[in-house]
Amino acid sequence: MRTLAALMIIAALVSANAGAQADLDQATKVRDYYAEWLSSLPGVNSVDVGTSVEGRPQIQVHIDATTPRPSQLPQQLDGVPVAVIAGTVEGDDSATSPLAPPLVPPRERDR
Fold first, then answer.
1. In angstroms, rounded to a whole number, what is the distance separating the alpha carbons of residues 58 and 83?
2. 57 vs 12, 20, 109, CA distance in Å?
3. What's the rounded Cα separation, in Å, for the pair 46 and 40?
4. Could you read off the pLDDT of 31-86 as tens digits, one per residue?
């Protein structure tokens, strides 16, 4: 009986881990799709994928500490939450480069 319970727990953990990895993979695909556009927004230093405090995947947009949240930045992209991280990423000097005008978001460009 204990062996069966242990196997059921292991199966549940493996299943949950596979689901989490699939969610992370989806968030990465969404990030890759929108990365050029997001990076073109004023004050954006970098874009990556991380997890929320609840452990859910999210797209993380790193902006200058003195930059307000870009108005074009949605709360989510294709169902993946977007989090703004204020402060520069170590080793990133894009904050000092000239800013190009923002590009059109990919979904609008694809219409």
1. 7
2. 20, 8, 26
3. 10
4. 999 999 999 998 899 999 998 888 899 999 999 888 788 888 899 999 999 999 98
Q: What is the phi/psi pair of residue 91, to 5°?
A: 85, 0
User: Would you say 32 and 98 are in contact if contact means Cβ atoms under 8 Å apart?
Assistant: no
3-state percent helix, strand, coil for the chain, nearest multiple of 5: 40, 20, 35
Tell me how far apart the alpha carbons of residues 19 and 28 are, in angstroms, rounded to a whole number: 14
pLDDT, position 35: 93
Contact residues for 47 (Cβ-Cβ < 8 A; gap 6+): 31, 34, 35, 38, 39, 59, 60, 61, 62
Sorted by where each starts, the structural domains of the chain and their CATH numbers stand as 2-92 (3.30.300)
Provide the CA 25 distance to its chain's centre, in angstroms.
Answer: 11
Neighbours of 100 (CB within 10 A): 9
Radius of gyration of the chain (CA): 18
